[in-house]
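Question thread 4412

I'm putting together a teaching handout and wanted feedback from people who do this every day. The idea is simple: show students a protein as raw sequence, then show them the structure tokens that encode its fold, then repeat with a second protein so they can compare. Below is the first pair exactly as I plan to print it.
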Amino acid sequence: MTARSDSVLELLPMVFAAPNQALARAEEVLGSDPLPLHASVAHQVIGIWQRDWGDLRIALEHLRRARDLAARAESADREADVLAALGVALVHAGRTREGLDALERGVAIGSGHTRARVLFRRAFASWVLGRHREALEDVRRAIPVLRQADDVIWTARALTLRATVHLALGAAERADADFTAAEALWDTTGQDHDKADVVESRGLAAFRSGDVPVALRLLDDAEERYAKLGTPSFMLYIRRCEVLMAAGLVPEALAEADAAIGVLDRIGGQSTRKAELLLAAARAARLAGDPHTAIARAALAVRLFAAQRRPWWETHARLVLIEARVMAGRGSGRLVADAAEVAEKLASFGAPAAPEASLLAGRIALGLGWTADAERHLAVAARSRHSGPPLARMTGWAAQALRARAAGSGRGVLEACRRGLDVLDDHRMTLGAAELRARATAQGAELAALAQQASLGSGPRRLLVWSERWRATALSTPPTRPPADPTLLGDLTAFREIAARAEEARMEGRPVPALDREQRRLEREIRSRTLHIRGDAPGYGSRFDPARLLERLGDGIRLVELAVLDGRVQVLLCGQGRVRRFEAGLLADAVTEAEHVQAGLRRLAHPGAEARLPLVVEAGRRLEELLLGPAAAQLGSGPVVVVPPGRLHRVPWALLPSLRERVLSVSPSASGWLRARETEPPPGGRQVLVRGPGLATEGAEVPELADRYGGSTVLEDDDARVPRVLEELDGAALAHIAAHGTFRADSPLFSSLRMADGPLIVHDFERLDRSPYRIILSCCDTARFASVGADELLGLVTALLPLGTAGVVACTAPVNDAAVVPLMLALHKGLDAGLSLAEALRDARAALPGDATHQATGWAFSAFGAA
């Protein structure tokens, strides 16, 4: 073989080392009147590039041409190698029989080392098709030959593939051993695309073992590597969708899947990957509560997988299709049979999703009253409760809980729910980011609901325990503190600068598309890095103890916890050493009424809306009937703590008649109120007053407060910059921040307070060693939250409470800026007299003028916590 031949043959490994460079050189070869052998290699290189990152139609044209040229060159091994590449492309195009025939012929005519490479690619095609045992057999035959030939690249590829197949079969330890061996080999090569692929596969392995932060970090690392090479990986999108869904980031997963499908359609890419992305999109739509979209995507995926002869994938798509149909209210005996058939097929494939299908069959059968059939299917699903990754064990415990309920064993239901939620608790505590912890709770919603229903007949105290068991759990411990990551700190600084420039341009009426794009990019970078943080809190803290709560409440304080069972509000009234239960109205009606109240308060923030005041007051009366029912008459005369569910976070509780003139505070959970109550203030009593830019009143209360608190630190003008503000807030006893608040429903942890150098966001507060003991936020939108997970709230206030803040005063609705000033001055007068935040806020409302605007302003502010 000539030096020229060696040079051309080097293009094949270059495809996965420097793909675009290999493509350009192959095109140069074809432009130089090459020999058939050399032209065959060049066409194969172009075909592989188009197959993996471009147009499949073009790929097939080049690979067929490469095959014909190899035959003309009378090189059996060359022809076998091309047939292997062509076979994989045909499988990706959905032409499974043709693809397998090409691979079969490649195995037949290839010899020795070349035949081992063809076996590897047939194994890859089998993996794509979901034929995992056939894939393992071929790769088992290929690896010894590749090793004997000292073929480092192809041995590493074979080990990576075998690890990936092991993962699909649930054999995580075997996969890890193969990944480790493959990485050691890749480190000796320059195969950058292959290295990115193994990083991506490592991310999948981390996810399969339950380590979501590491999975997200590795997948992001792989994406950066692919981006440098200019080669998108559609498999990466599929895997990241899976991880995002498990992390509760369902909208992101759906958006990513749809975007990737759009790219594939535009470039004429792989039909196999399109089907897999449709399956990911169907799963995401179902988790997002959109069964009709899920049905449409899953049905198309089923058809594509069937046409591609991929029964493993087709069966998984059928599972999602059945789940979506059940969600749409189409439960039937036929669906029981379909789910059972899917479960059997998945079990025969060795697929980890088999218990999920058995649970689905059992759940549908229960709904139809087919108890014997339900027991059979649920018993199969329950076997997964003792082993496997966290979500598989939770599936098993959910099945066990349903079995116990069908058998009439309330005790069995509660035990299964406890065990299942313990599994999820352990999983959540591996997550460092508060957002991931909050969203992960959605996976325990069914278990929590089953436990609450089972405890309903066991007395209100037990119902309280289970209501607390899955309420505001993300706030039970502080999020893991972000590392001293220079890149993260740099991104936060750049984000602040860009956001400030964009805000300034908007105020001047200038377009800001470039700044908006850069701001969104920086937000993605910051969020991505925070999601990578692993949890460092072992276990899940102390269990909620009702006796301890009742002791702290004493005879004077009442705590009202609102639980929701089957759509109806259950009021748990705690105090005087006992817990009583009252039934109130429907949650849906209360949510609608709360929205009406919010609209009324927005109108009252502007002059000329006084006529709406009676309507808002009447809406408050209706809200009380829906939310408190007969419990309103049993509140006594002392302070009240309200613990609402997530969907009621925008209720202005001070508007309710029975709460209007009393000491009132709000807490995300009874456990959170206890922690706040027992939080000691820092020594020194340091006060910090912050005045941000652009306020209509210019923060008029701040100078007067500075006079009241003689030794306070005042930050305004250029001093009110985020680094300095954070430095002074850390460990303060009292902070008053007068600054524009912006709530971000799309990304609540980017909700912000505007400082002189840009926004102060939740991620900034998480860097404090200890947030201020008391914080007063005097502007609009500071107490708005996004409801996520099972019953979690994400926003500025809920981020502060686990970080050492015991009490917050913030606003749940837009308010009149001028009316806020006297409210704040009266509030601080009470604090200076030694009152708590709730006591001072009650007195401050009473001290306001009696007009509609001032009354609405007082109702819009709430005291959170217990300081």
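The second pair follows. I'd like the answer to focus on this one:
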Amino acid sequence: MSVDTLQAPAHLTDDELRTLDAHWRAANYLSVGQIYLMANPLLTEPLRPEHVKPRLLGHWGTSPGLNLVYTHLNRVVRARDLNTLCIWGPGHGGPAVVAGSWLEGSYTRTYPDVTRDAVGMARLFKQFSFPGGVPSHVAPETPGSIHEGGELGYSLSHAYGAALDAPDLVVACVIGDGEAETGPLAASWHSNKFLDPVHDGAVLPILHLNGYKIANPTVLARIPEAELDALLEGYGHDPIHVTGDDPAAVHQAMAHAMDTALDRIAAIQHAAREQGAAERPRWPVIVLRTPKGWTGPAEVDGLPVEGTWRSHQVPLSAVRDNHQHLRQLEDWLRSYRPEELFDEQGRPRPEVLACIPEGARRLGATPHANGGLLLRELPLPPLESYAVDVDKPGATMHEPTRVLGDFLEHVMRATAERRDFRLVGPDETASNRLQAVYAASGKAWQAGTLDVDEHLDRHGRVMEILSEHTCQGWLEGYLLTGRHGLFSCYEAFVHIVDSMVNQHIKWLRVTRRLPWRAPIASLNYLLTSHVWRQDHNGFSHQDPGFVDHIMNKSPEAVRVYLPPDANTLLSVADHALRSRDYVNVIVAGKQPCFDWLSMEQARVHCARGAGIWDWAGTENGGEPDVVLACAGDVPTQEVLAAAQLLRRHLPELSVRVVNVVDIARLMPSEEHPHGMTEFEYNGLFTPDKPVIFAYHGYPWLIHRLAYRRTGHGHLHVRGYKEIGTTTTPFDMVVRNDLDRYRLVMDVIDRVPGLAVRAAAVRQRMEDVRLRHHDWIREHGTDLPEVADWTWDG
């Protein structure tokens, strides 16, 4: 049942109310100042046009509500000595969060030149959305933030990710009512069914309904309150309402709501931790209704502003040119009575600071928002303990991800007490052959269970929900607060989080330039059930383009690996889990795959990123006539099968086989840290010989990466051509011209002199492809010479 806290008795004393209101007014003043001013920060003289920035940028509408939350979080953190992190969903309200951190001193601690006085206030104002300054959003530069406000929808999943395995942490999460309309946010309400009140912290959602987006009303602000309550209760929450526009009444209501919510959270955790309560709790949520642009101009140019969409960004937009706007801005700023809030030197007065907690309890100083400070090395086992034996290439087969699953089971077991490693994925852990982890940890689950269920565990650290957005948000929040993890996903559907990973990469790129941000564990993807082996699902599940998306991003922050077998997958995964501040994408198959390299060979090959497999070619110490290159497990098999056909049918041909694990190696060294110099590239691929490249994904990516190479004109790439269906494994490569017979034909077509001399061999290859077409339609299986193929090198 919801609680309307405005009907609750007031319990703040007059002094408490006065100091809370002083802090809130100071934060509002600083927020407006950041949007508008570049001089005269304390209004010690009448406001003139030259005091105002030439370009007015920022978002006022949500800022007073965020300031209210910051003020009241300060009160409860100080009173209860809470360990608290706040996720600011309406992240475009950057002025508010910056204002709060400046008032508490954490901003000056981070940026000593932005002092807590008039000089520092002037710098604070001018730098906001100014060339050489700081962004308008809650960004990596903002102390206390783990959440970029540039894109909406991820706040609540980030909050739950931060709370996982942090039992003493309370994560407040302000959700804007515009953000609440997004799909990722809607799905993330279900995270409370996965939050363990014993081992995890608590999340306190604060749904901020100020009524409008940029130009339209918001859905949740316009539906009847009973309908909103039914929605939130259906999600498993007990709503507590705070509604109003009178500051004194809202302060009283917000204080009561905060205390009520935190008392309920404490009771839930006590019942689970001390009394063994096993029933899924109903967690509180605060519904905060205040006007958009509260305390700002009520009307501008005869049009209503406060409480409307017109207050979303800059309510007074012509301050430099319009004298009336300039006077309105000055009146607006003076309405906060800055002389009561700051002394003559611009320092906040004691009553403004009375509610602020101390040290690391301050919202802008919590180490949970700088997760690298809390990060510990993962206890990874020796790879030899899980490597498969390879006496000679291609003699045995394993499912690479199943081998990796055994390795991850060790990691999960080794972190059982520390609880700082999680495996997330959309209902695919077992499908992706990683089910060995269940021996160390079950699947997190707080909802009902049936006898037929398997591996569900109230305290589990495997996270499965059929929302890639929520998986991504959980893991990002977990990593940003100092832990480790892996996201396992079907290759085709990881695209759902394209935009989310883009924001995370931007975050990493910026934090690399902030010396006070400690490196965090990398965001690691394992993409499997990939394009070439979708025997059950077909065309809808065939899309290898996530790699293209990632390779468009900041070279310093992204890495893509295509291990060709089980041991190289182990080596790459070990490297990724040890790395910091990257997004690592690993593409590997789950179906039986030939074992090509021993563990020692795999380590060396992965360290190189690309190398010649001399055992697979026929160079005999001379210069090759052609280079067969490959990246990915299925392309590697097809290239080796093609090399075997060439050895049999054209034994005089000198063939070099090159395998690429790290796709960025193809780039020039000046464009990517893993790129090759021109000398290295030419040594591997030659500057003038034909290169037939079999690639896992869309072929034009290889051309784009290598377009500046001397030998690019001799490069011919085969890959996925967006042709798919439910068919046999080999038919998929035939349909996309990636098969061994087509690769042999490509060699014949591109090596000078072979077109005539090897015409009969080419015809034979074409005949096999035609026979394949008829065979699978009659038998439903691949040709025996394909299905039973083995490497005989």
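Top answer:
Good format. For the second protein you could add a caption like this: Confidence is low (pLDDT under 50) at residues 1-8. The CA atoms of residues 117 and 347 lie 4 Å apart.
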